[in-house]
Each structure stands twice: as C-alpha cells, then as structure tokens.
Amino acid sequence: MTKQDIASVKQLLATKKKIVIVPHKNPDGDAIGSSLGLYHYLLKGNHDVHVLVPNDFPSFLKWIPGSDSILRHDSQTKMCNGLIADADIIFTLDFNALHRTDQMEQVLAENKGVKIMIDHHQAPDDYALYTYSDVHMSSTCEMVYHFIDMLGDIDLIDKDIATCLYVGIMTDTGSFRFSSTSSTTHNVVANLMEKGADNAEIHNNIYDSSSYERLQLLGCALSNLVVIPEFRTAYITLSQEELNRFNYKKGDTEGVVNYGLSIEGVILAAIFIEDKQEGIIKISLRSKGNFSVNEMSRAHFNGGGHINAAGGKSYLPLKDTVEKFISILPSYNKALNDE
C-alpha cells in the first residue's frame, strides 16, 4: 500500500462504517486469525463489523476470541447476503481472487462499497480499490499487524487482537520453521506476546487437543505414504471411506502433508484427499528450496498459492489423480534433482 492509500483508508475509517470481513473457503488459522484480529481492531473504532466465512472452520480454532460471533454463509445465507449488500467496506483476507469464496463470489462482486484486500498469495486479481499484497510476508496475520501499524494504531493492539494474530502467524509458518519466517516476523511475534498473547496456551489449543480418531486418521495417512526417490517426492492419499472410518472432521488433515516433506531427501510432498460431497480430490502441495508448487498447482491442478505451499483440486477419481501427478513428475525431474 502506498502512503496515499493508507491516508485514504485512515480517512475512510475515521467515521462509523458498516464493515464486512471475509476470508477464503475452508478457512485455516491464518484466515480466521487475521479476520478476527482485524474485527477486534475495527470494533475499537466504533464500526459495525461482521466476519462472514463461506463455510465451517476447524474446531481447534473455535476458542479464538470472537470466534463465536462469526457468521457462516452456507448456513446463514440470507443474513450474510444482506450484510454484504449493505456494507460500506469489505475487507477480503488471506485470498486474492473472489472465486476463493465459493458461493459468496457473486454477491461480493455486486457490492458497490469499498473493497480492501490484505493477502500474501501470488498473482492477485484487481477487484479491490485498495490492495495490500506482499508474497514475502509470513502470513496475512503479520500483514494485519503491519496494516494496523501503518494506520498509527499499534497501541490499540490488546490481548484479544494479539492472540488472534499470533494464531495465524504460528500456523502459517509451521510454528516459525518455514523459510517465510523473517526476523521481522519474530519481532512482530515478540510484540504480540508483550501485548498479551500467551504462546504456550495458543500452541496447546491448536496442536495439543487432538481426538483419538484424528490420531488414528493420521496413522492411516502415514500408512498410505509413498516415496518416489528418483523424483525426491512423497505423497499421501486418503479416500472418502478412510475419512468416514475415522469420523473425519474439518481440520483433521491440517499439516499431514508436511510429514512427507520431513523425509530426508524429499523436495516435493503432496496429499490427495477424496471429497465425495464436492465431487473433487483436494490437493495440498509442499516443497523445499526454489521448487515452486504454486506453478505446478496452477499448471495442472486448478490451484495456486506460494512457492513452497499451494493447493489445488482434481475432478478425476482419486486413483487417476495420483496417476496424473506421477505422470508429470518426469517433466520436473531437473528442477527437483537440482535442489
């Protein structure tokens, strides 16, 4: 954002507004954390603020301050559409193309208010009047912190805001171990802790509250792990039958793909998850070094994301999707083995 943009946004927020905050479909820790962090901040400006999510989010995020105020578009459609239609300002967080909101896309596009995008993914669309886009940022939560700072309101960050933003930074950096974690990220996190974010409690709430069935599902996923050493690749599959067997709940497969990437010598990891209800195979891709799973996902799996973390989908059956994935690996042989 330019200084002129910041000045314009600051002036826009100087008087009470009807504001809607929207993250992407299947919101994760960064999407929920950034949305609620911004929500608490805007409430301090006496704005009328609502967070609207396209669909449900994992239970391990439902303790975050303000999570009980979130409205779901898929089950509260009429109310959400009315709030979007009446909104003076719409913040879109942790995505940069309206189709990432699924059934909300059209009503968001039709809104005549001011749209403000805050996001760290590659190749943003140009639907927003004000765009804060930085692919080098660790997370959208870190960007919301800087956004608040640019508006001159860093002193307004309290324990609730700090907790929300810490969640997204921690989850999107893999507990601060991914390469996107910069010295600035650590400085931001230190400040959030000074503002009241309890790092041990947050980590426990996110990572140390697994159900027995979730751990069984993890065991199933690891038993399905396949390594292709000649392409320095590992992949995991989970069928709908396997998900049902272990009473799968949203968020249960969060981070499972990283187990493949943890294997010595592996540069590329993937997980393929069958979703019979949507009629697709959900795909998560992870990589090390300069190998771009963003490019791979965009080229072959109707998706995108970051250089080292991307998502996609396939309309082929699970077996055929895996075969397609394996068939394209030879074309990436040099890139994978050069790493």
What does this entry look like structurally?
It is a single chain. This protein folds into two domains: about 5-205, Alpha-Beta Complex (inorganic pyrophosphatase (n-terminal core)), CATH 3.90.1640; about 210-339, Diaminopimelate Epimerase, Chain A, domain 1. It contains 14 helices and twelve strands. The chain has helices spanning about 5-10, 30-45, 75-85, 105-110, 140-150, 160-170, 185-195, 200-205, 210-225, 240-245, 255-260, 295-300, 320-330, 335-339, and strands spanning about 20-25, 50-55, 70, 90-95, 115-120, 130-135, 225-230, 235-240, 270-275, 280-285, 305, 310-315. The strands form two sheets. The chain has a six-stranded parallel β-sheet with strand order 3-2-1-4-5-6, sandwiched between helices. Helix 2 (about 30-45) runs parallel beside helix 5 (about 140-150). It is globular.
Look at the structure and name the CATH superfamily of the largest domain: inorganic pyrophosphatase (n-terminal core)
What is the third-level CATH name, the topology of the largest domain? inorganic pyrophosphatase (n-terminal core)
Largest sheet: 6 strands, parallel
Highest-level CATH class of the largest domain: Alpha Beta
Structural class: alpha/beta
Query: What is the count of structural domains?
Result: 2
Over all CA atoms, what is the radius of gyration?
Answer: 20 Å
Low-confidence stretches: none
Note the run of SSEs as H and E: HEHEEHEHEEHHHHHEEHHEEHEEHH
Helical element count?
A: 14
The strands making up the biggest β-sheet line up spatially as 3-2-1-4-5-6
CATH architecture term of the largest domain = Alpha-Beta Complex
- The mean pLDDT is 95
| DSSP strand count | 12
The amount of helix comes to 25-40%
Shape: globular
Span from first to last CA? 34 Å
Our estimate of the beta-strand percent is: 15-25%
